[in-house]
Queue: 3 jobs
Job 1
Amino acid sequence: MADTIRVQTADFDVGEELASLTARDARAGAVASFLGLVRDINEGNGVSEMSLEHYPGMTEKALAGIVAEARGRWDIYDVTVIHRIGCLLPKDRIVLVAVSSAHRGEAFAACEFIMDYLKTRAPFWKREVTPDGARWVDARESDSTAALRWEK
Amino acid sequence: MADTIRVQTADFDVGEELASLTARDARAGAVASFLGLVRDINEGNGVSEMSLEHYPGMTEKALAGIVAEARGRWDIYDVTVIHRIGCLLPKDRIVLVAVSSAHRGEAFAACEFIMDYLKTRAPFWKREVTPDGARWVDARESDSTAALRWEK
Amino acid sequence: MIKILYFASLREKLGSGGESLELPDEVSDLAGLLALLSARDGEWRSLAAVKNLKMAVNQEIADASARICDGDEIAFFPPVTGG
Amino acid sequence: MIKILYFASLREKLGSGGESLELPDEVSDLAGLLALLSARDGEWRSLAAVKNLKMAVNQEIADASARICDGDEIAFFPPVTGG
């Protein structure tokens, strides 16, 4: 049980991160993961560039709190959360969440939960450049709905 | 839309597979994936070795059918399913399922669906070596239950 | 002729990975084939009684009522445990 | 003194990433601080009216009734959009 939680401008290597997640614990039979990428289109507009701002200090605390809550809900082994900040281009990796567990049901649930809470509770903000100019990305109603279902 | 479905004795590189999955489509903002590993313990016994048998021909057809059904249910882009056969050791990779989509909800659902159906419909059989000798792994009730929830 | 395959624990138990068989005229479905094979001596007797026995016709899961005809590939196996 | 931070679209709109402020005695919660800031000229006037304005006290999400005291780090920001 050693969580990896990182906020960084540098890219990350998914294969390496998953290997390091699973290397520690031979009980882990299941790893569910999510990789988020910059899309080249959003709300109907082409996106040529994106920048990600965050709230240093609070971000790491919020992510650690979300992971701790996932641990309280599911029997999981190790967790990796990596989120990039700064300037990104279409297809660039933004976020990786990976969860190992003995069985896949818990790994999937915890991974999806962490993503849903990250989307609504971790202080990151996206700004994208489109042919119409730069704009701050609006929060999506569907993200709030996704997070709400875990309150049941 | 180009699915990768492979049954092989060789190991695979998760980072490379995910990179090749996402390289093709810049609309893909979300990749959900599942990695299954050999556990060093099962049903209370230590496992020192595992072998995987399959039904050549039917396996590939069954996997393609499961992926096609996922495509009918969710709006997903690309799918990768790789399943190893032959002799494996604890911590070895067994299976990778990865699904790309515009949004994470569909990627997660389709990935979990494919795993649940693979577990109950694709003709693979595990045999493991424990201190008490070799034994064929029994099908798990929980896998049937997991697959059944998609029938609703 | 039909081709019959046996997998995993069933293959071990029967001591056979498969066989080619001339389909008798009176056998027209999987239930009939199962009865035919179960009439053999030794471990074959228990074939029809195998718990959760799975069957496939031409690489598609099928149940006992599935029709079979000359040239078909039939398979018998225990519940799958991949993934 | 309290430390106040503004992020993302709010930072741009106010033209400020943050400030240090001597907390007046009569301000004891976030609602009070918000009223104080909204009494300034220009864009500040619209601060309290920002749709879905989020607030944090010492790096934890808080609502308008949250107590604040000397030394606290307060943040105002729009709904988050990471991931």
Note: Helices of chain A lie at 14-23, 58-73, 104-121, 141-148.
Job 2
Amino acid sequence: MLDTAKTSKVEFDYSGGERLTMNMGPQHPSAHGVFRAILTLEGETIVGVDAVIGYLHRCHEKLSETLTYAQYPSIASKTDYVAAMTSELAYVMAAEQIGKIEVPKRAQYLRVIMAELQRVASHLLWLGTWCMDMGGALGGGATVFLYCIRERELILDLFESLVGARLLYGFYQVGGTRYDIPDGWAQKCRETINLIDARIGEYESLLEDNPFFLARAQGVGVISRELAEDVGIAGPLLRGSGVNFDLRRAAPYSSYEDFTFNVPVETGGDCFARYRVRMVEFRESIAIVRQALDRLPDGAISSRPGLKSVAQIRIPKGEAYARVEGPRGEVGCYLIADGSAKPYRMKWRGASFSNLAVLPHIIPGHKIADVVAIMGSVDPVFGEVDR
Amino acid sequence: MPAWLSPLVAPFIVLNVVIGLVTYVTLLERKFAARMQSRIGPYRVGPHGLLQPIADALKLMMKEDIVPRTADRRVYNLAPIVFLVPCMLIFATIPFAPGLGVADLNIGILFFLAVSSMEIVGLFMAGWGSNNKYALLSAMRAVNQIISYDLPFIFAALVPVLLAGSLKLSEIAAAQQGLWFIFYPVIGQLAFIAFVVSTLAAENRVPFDILEAESELVAGFRVEYSGMKFALIQLGEYAHVIGSSFLGAVLFLGAWAGPGPEWLGPLWMLLKAMFLFLLITWVRWSFVRIRVDQILTLSWKVLLPFTLLLLVSTAFVVVWRAGV
Amino acid sequence: MSNPVLPSSPTAKRPHGPEGPAPLRSSPTRVVSPLSVIRAVTKALWVTFLNLFRKPVTVHYPDEERKYPDRYRGLLALVYEKDTGEEACIGCRLCEYVCPPAVIKVEMLKTEKRNYAKSFSLELYACEFCELCVQVCPTDAIVMMKSFDLATADRREMLLDKDRLHAIGLQHQQSWATGNLLRAMQGPPKMARAEEVHAKPAGSQA
Amino acid sequence: MTREQAKALIDERFSSAQVDGDAPTSAEATASRPIVVTLPVDQWTAFAQFAKTTLGCRFFSFSSAVDWKEQGLEVVARIDNLDDGVGVMMKARLGPGVSACPSLVPVFRGAEWMERECYDMFGIQFEGHPDLRRMLLSDDWQGHPLLKSYAVDTPHPPYR
């Protein structure tokens, strides 16, 4: 294995039949954040990968030991900043599981609506950046990227009118949610998701059986079912490799059992299978949001009084592992509480950390252009990888 | 006008017209692409961004010209010029109007094709000279791609030559008065598609632009260039694209034929070339780039046999038409 | 097989994981026949062509201002009380304790009638706009404005002191959220269970 | 393979393991709650192998550690049987002052990065790990941040 110290000074040696060590990242345009892959090349084919991460490490786990249960939810969204709504949910549910705090029905429905809207927004960003990586910033990829961003802005407008912020919300609170939907929001939300439903049809006709796209996506970056489970990848990657597992169906939380939706599974395991899984997930999430909006019950949005001071929420001694089905897979929060206002230990299971761990196993044998396509289809978010 | 001056006047005028055209074509492309992506494109510099190309040119001229310490100095400095000269030479034989043109050689199209494949030398010099891994990889890719696409480009360009029966571009244009070669029953359309596809590949436009594939090789062979050298390479690339679209206009769209009085010829010629250019831009902003090995397989296994077959069949058709 | 297996022959076989061929696919592989190529290419081109006639979505920022929703979390500011016109802040330091990045620093000034804030500093460059300070403020002193443009060339200008905060308060339009409204929206559970539907938004705060 | 069968198998095969210390809460919660197994350290890899083969827990969710100050470090790992929805939370106390633990990499390849992060944050030496170096922090970093002894950045006057 190449140890990082030695590879810092990297030169050519033209002794024929030699291997070129090339550095992809950390400022590489298609690195999806700050990630450095040291590729060993033979011509165009890659024979070895050493991934260097940790550029965005803020030690969320130490931070959570210094912040109270009231403060940390708005910081939890900084782990997976592309899907802030789902990452906060894991922390809040873990605390509620330990403290056995009951969440009112309306708050559960609000959480489902926001999580599914966030999944659509996050998948839109995935599709845009993936096509941009494969198509080039001055080419067809940028067209799909701008379409996706145009639609994602509509969802961010919804979140902005609900919470006031566009990316990191702090919408959750132990015991329920901090905000209720303003009047007229539900109607605007229905219009937005109808528009997005139509626009997704447009993207599919732009990409679906487009020979150039198929040539880049089919048969590239195949993850076998056994490797998928062994490394612990989750979400669309797992379902793309043939494992029928979705937390919303296997261990329903926050009243997901009230909604009917089907879980897409592809057995291909390659980039195209993951693409197909996510495109179906777009429509499933929109269906869930419609059902949740139609059956949104009235009542309180939090089972605890409004937050008045920093140490107001105290959780009794205990531990719990809460899991949420984020857009990138299982986001888990393993929380140990010692009865005070601050948790004793919090382990954050980021979905992208395990998803990224599969790269060194599947990249060898591909070309450089494939690395970009595989990275895009794995869709890592480096806030969640480096925590 | 003194005798020694007259041969210089026409090339001087054409050169300046081309440079002016190239700068404003970049603006046209950016505006057109922006509208396709539901945004606006350059808007701030001048009314509706009309002065943007001039601003870009001035900016590039003022930019500091950095030469990497480990670069192979002579090759690095010579590369942009060697790349630019062929791209400008291709305008020599293009007839803009019946009499208007720098040099109407009787081997017009042969000259065009020969010169346009010279640019690969400048490109590889740029890739090699800048002593940068990304540049070297992209230069190697460039050599593969352009060489493998020159042949289909030549065969597709030869189909109108067969139909018109002469290499002289003005005669080809004259032969199309009645019927533009693109409307020639079957052969015209197929040859036009082959021509467009191989033009896309010869100038590394998307979906074949693996040369400066930003997501993998950052900026390809131009990565170490800055300032005026970068502008020269950019100028050369766009000049090549416009040259090919002019050639396409002459070969397939009946150069200056068009309704209206005679003197409107050059305008029609310009409009047709711009239509072809927008077609290339339209394709550029709708497709994803494909991998190196797929490009090469497409060229050798699909495009080359197809254009060869097309050429032979046109020959038969011409002989059969002449015979009957 | 911990680190990646380096394929023996340089010309690596068809690129799929070192685990051997992938299982069969459920969605049929899209075979690329000439006809499907033409159809797909025209369909893709049609989409971009269609978009040529849609209105661009760009907002010309400095000239046109985007319409902000009324719960917008913008700049922080201190306000004066409606009736007496005094400063609303009583220096109780609740916001200082609740602020996750600890950017607020308050010192209390005790007087007999009521307390004031002697000094109030807020480091805007480290603030995360999470609105917890607005939520815990008992006297609705600190609120958020509907604007974000406080770009400065010098970081030290972002260290806002009390009168700068008051100035911002007068300059921009205040967004909807204040401490009492937020706490009322979250609704005390007892109230919700006693009555059946909506908790009264008025100051029913116990 | 329901939850009860798995618990029975564990009791019978690993007598020294303590299963499910805390009392079960509402029925619905137990269904998705994992089986918590506290093991002695030397059976760590053996139990993982047993869980993967007989219990069918092939999905490796995560592995981490907890610093209990004087009682020493504790290693935690979570593996799941996706088809039957059974989750197993493995725990092992390393004892005060001990910071060595057998590695799970021979059983689960996903453990490679997780254990490198554990070493980076807690300083636990995993025997049998192919390439144990720091995962998130730079190679020349001193100390292991997540230990309780590692000083936290105490609240401070506006230093910026």
Note: The CA atoms of residues 184 and 201 of chain C lie 6 Å apart.
Job 3
Amino acid sequence: MPDALTVEDLLDAYRTMKTIREFEDRVHVEFAKGGIPGFVHLYAGEEASATGVGMHLSKEDKLASNHRGHGHCIAKGVEVKGMMAEIYGKATGTCKGKGGSMHIADLDTGMMGANGIVGGGPPLACGAALAAKMKKNGKIAVVFCGDGASNQGTTFEAMNLASVWKLPVVFVFENNGYGEATGSSYSVSCGDIADRAKGFGMPGRIADGHDFFEVYEAFGEASERARKGEGPSLLEHKLDRFYGHFEGDNQNYRAEGEVQKLREETCCIKRFAATAVSEHGINQSQLEAIDSEVGELIDEAVKFAESSPDPSESDLTTDVYINY
Amino acid sequence: MPDALTVEDLLDAYRTMKTIREFEDRVHVEFAKGGIPGFVHLYAGEEASATGVGMHLSKEDKLASNHRGHGHCIAKGVEVKGMMAEIYGKATGTCKGKGGSMHIADLDTGMMGANGIVGGGPPLACGAALAAKMKKNGKIAVVFCGDGASNQGTTFEAMNLASVWKLPVVFVFENNGYGEATGSSYSVSCGDIADRAKGFGMPGRIADGHDFFEVYEAFGEASERARKGEGPSLLEHKLDRFYGHFEGDNQNYRAEGEVQKLREETCCIKRFAATAVSEHGINQSQLEAIDSEVGELIDEAVKFAESSPDPSESDLTTDVYINY
Amino acid sequence: MARKITFQQAINEALDQEMARDEDVVIMGEDVVGGAGTEGEMDAWGGVLGVTKGLWGKYGDRIMDTPISESGFVGAAVGAATAGLRPVCELMFIDFMGVCFDQIYNQAAKFRYMFGGKAETPVVIRTMVGAGFRAAAQHSQCLYPMFTAVPGLKVVIPSNPYDAKGLLIQAIRDNDPVIFCEHKVLYTVEGEVPEDSYTIPFGEADIAREGEDITVVALGRMVHQALEAANTLSSGGISCEVVDLRTTSPLDEETILESVENTGRLVVVDEANPRCSIATDISALVAKKAFEHLNAPIEMVTAPHTPVPFSGALEDMYIPSPDSIVSAVKSVMDFSQ
Amino acid sequence: MARKITFQQAINEALDQEMARDEDVVIMGEDVVGGAGTEGEMDAWGGVLGVTKGLWGKYGDRIMDTPISESGFVGAAVGAATAGLRPVCELMFIDFMGVCFDQIYNQAAKFRYMFGGKAETPVVIRTMVGAGFRAAAQHSQCLYPMFTAVPGLKVVIPSNPYDAKGLLIQAIRDNDPVIFCEHKVLYTVEGEVPEDSYTIPFGEADIAREGEDITVVALGRMVHQALEAANTLSSGGISCEVVDLRTTSPLDEETILESVENTGRLVVVDEANPRCSIATDISALVAKKAFEHLNAPIEMVTAPHTPVPFSGALEDMYIPSPDSIVSAVKSVMDFSQ
Ligand SMILES: Cc1ncc(C[n+]2csc(CCOP(=O)(O)OP(=O)(O)O)c2C)c(N)n1
Ligand SMILES: Cc1ncc(C[n+]2csc(CCOP(=O)(O)OP(=O)(O)O)c2C)c(N)n1
Ligand SMILES: [Mg+2]
Ligand SMILES: [Mg+2]
């Protein structure tokens, strides 16, 4: 519960959310300038979701992500410079430039990988949870899925399997209202994704994904259940994405002024800051100090990425198998 | 409703159930003798399910089946001689001996095919339902799945798709308690399969699959809904299989005496006959006449199959494409 | 001079003309309309890269957005094909076949055979293939060898706008299941395309360039690389015959064999990974059926046995280049027994 | 004389010994225990054909029944492999790859590359392949060429009990994802197998029979057909060298090429369908790298380009037979330029 959060925790949470936002805003800008190649899906607007979850995880807990993975990485503790270099395709990237935005992974911090396949993550997270269960180490796994991914067969199978095997895993559905240009009101045939939990024998709960405190509390409950060996849970975070599906999306499927309105009304960071200051004794100046540190961090990351070398020819044919 | 059933209908229903039972009992015997090759899954014990559904279908309605498909075929009107010959792998079989027990299809009677892939049928049934919807012909599609198949991703996806597109399709789950040797109480993570309906925005209903009248009534409701353009439904038939998963199964996963007990207590044909005689004015002699006709029919079918020729060498490489 | 349009426009036009001609033709896929269930413009996307744009306005409900459930909607397309429709289903990237392959190779491809010749399954699955977009390992593959291996499927890989239109119309009218592979790098390529509807039969390779010294068999985007290499080589006095397969199943064995009979030398160029590929398939065909005409080893120019790397620096090395084709041709020409 | 056990027992023994050796080894699959959630005997089945029978009694929770959710549990095996376990996952029939292929080729196979060399994914997927059981089109396929084509996977196809045990132990200890293909017709074949644990390295083909006139490359069940053909041929004075590939990825190119360098002739035998297959792969390799040693066309003996028929009469014609190998060898021997 919010009460359990120390000032330290709150400042950490703010730093994480702010880092994600700055990272994404900057990638947006650099992409438009032509510095970044490929398909890039930004997480801006959804920061409270990854952060509220990540605060409950240690490096030994595992996280399986999706194509919109930058925020999950940052919340799981992946180093930002390497991420930026990876998105630029540089040799210094988290994955030596061989994975890119859609495949950032850092197994050392428990980040099992973004994923280019919608629904790719849920079975993998079950596996990580199984490993934790077999090793009886009290660790858990979490997987982030979109509303679109909630209709993928792999996702359903994973939920059933997790329940049958009573795995310590939490399925977090980030329902941002769209899968690409298709509305979740169209593609998800039941009212709320959380309605599906019952069919898989697990509790399902909705949280306001703009509200860090609500996410933090809900995931706290689910992760505790998992750690206690009581099995999986489903959480649905209702939230919004501030950019297009991917960079370059003209977003003509959105209502006029929709994004503008969202940015004004649903910004999770603004909301967090207001609550933190008014209810938790945080000073505005503390937040501002973080803002400027984060700004520097991201500047540095971009400079690092830009000035890093490309992978070299030999990288093309290494890392296929253990022996080459 | 039972009231809507004429004497003619009831005798038809009895004939269908009895034909299925005799067919399967005979295949069991002939398989043990070594006359029938391959993987053969018998439907005995589940006759009321296929029959109660089939009574609502015309040849233009489509049915997608699974590996345990003989009963579905017979209830859909596939000719029994051809089926038997198919199971023997003969040139006179419904599929020229090229499909076998797991692949009997007869598109002319709306039988889209048994299926060797668990969960193969549900998406296909959606397609048939889509065709009916686009052609606005008032026809529907139905798919039979087992409890095991209820955990396959394709099945979940199909249910969601059917709901999103409001397709005239009915998902019938024949829950016989086992998927091979694994209990449905283990593999289905929620209490009843019908509990999953809500997560796919459709009504879900349980029927006693030993009770023809209940099945008939429940499917009547679901099919009417589909024909009226109100979308898909899920039905769960609780029932039992009298033989092993496939022929050759020693069934050591079953409780001692379980099959014996089932055959005595849950036989849908005995139950139907008793009700038909006591409540619907059918004479025992009418049923006996059918019994002997069915006996002859199956005898003939076996003789036909046994005496039919094998496919010939040229059959090996035809029917791959339209032109060869 | 005839009208020029892009590869992408050619595909859109083929779809448009076939939908106008036959009302059993329907389209389904993720965002093929784009905007279902949203407040914005319907037909917002017309496919992730806009290929189906404009069709919803003309054909309404006959073009349908789907949930992200490839097994579900690909299977529905297959089922609908057996029940009287002629669906054109979009699998956004061929890389996603892993979540729906069963409905293609175990269902669609096998119905006719398993059912003793009684089924017809006129379904087309359109899908994007290929590297070059910096789209990394899961959005850049050339997995068509796996489809080519499946009896009962037909596999089409056009290299230019003219072929794209004619082959797609053929695919839609064909009564067997067809996998139609669109190389994403080709979408913006322009070429002459008649406005009227026309078909190109399957199993007829195109001699993209005539030559005498060596046969270069290629497909899809690789035809362009091969032609560029042939240009370079011709100035060095080597005359390449470039064969564009167009369809890998059915395969035009005759054209390939005839060409090799004339030239005595063969290089096969395939963007797919090297093992069990179109490159090995064509090589084996020739080593079996035209061995006595071969004067040199058969070279294959393919991607390496690695996933597709993200970094542009690496991806450019991954994709077979005109230069690598030139080297391969030269090494074959230099061979003397 | 050494102990003789069946192919099936050899696999069971390999699993048993590795589970005893390393507690990170776990097994999962449909009915690999058999009886979960039932009132009858637990370990009722031990796999659909009894291959894992007895392991539950020894290892309890380390062997797990699964729902019929191949993407779910194959993916879980893959995920668990990245998180410290060494799962041996059973995909009952290779024919079912269509409902879980993504987790294999897009996930397991690509992690190491996509993640810049930091992932290890020591997962083994055991699966049954092949025709001969009258199991029809969806339970009889040889789909291993599709796995062989995927960079990042290793593919093992043992032909006898000795190899089955040694290769499976190697597979479990290997740190890359391995597809382990068990031909169902081989399960009852007996052979000498040491009781002690041993490994057979990947990428080392076995010369199953030495010979001078022609090389016959085969794999899995086809090794037996090839050996039978070689026997027949030897009485007619033709000496065949039979090479058993054992693993198709990695491939022992050296042994194949050396053999062809000696014999100058090659027949490849593969139960898979002909297009983009192991047969074309080996043919292409030799046509490229040993062309100058070849004295005759390369023949391929494969299944036809059709689904597997149910009827025994047809299935027997479908499977490459010793007779068809004999004919192919003779036609190659008869060739003279
Ligand atoms: C199997 C598969 N199908 C389709 C796609 C293409 N695709 C990428 S992201 C996406 C939408 C995902 O929507 P959602 O799960 O809601 O996540 P969001 O993008 O909204 O975060 C689609 C269709 C894919 N990558 N993988
Ligand atoms: C995709 C796939 N996985 C596994 C199998 C093997 N298999 C055939 S039938 C069966 C059990 C099916 O159980 P259920 O759906 O309950 O049907 P029942 O046999 O009880 O009628 C299994 C696991 C298969 N044929 N296809
Ligand atoms: Mg979304
Ligand atoms: Mg069952």
Note: DSSP finds eleven helices and eight strands in chain A.
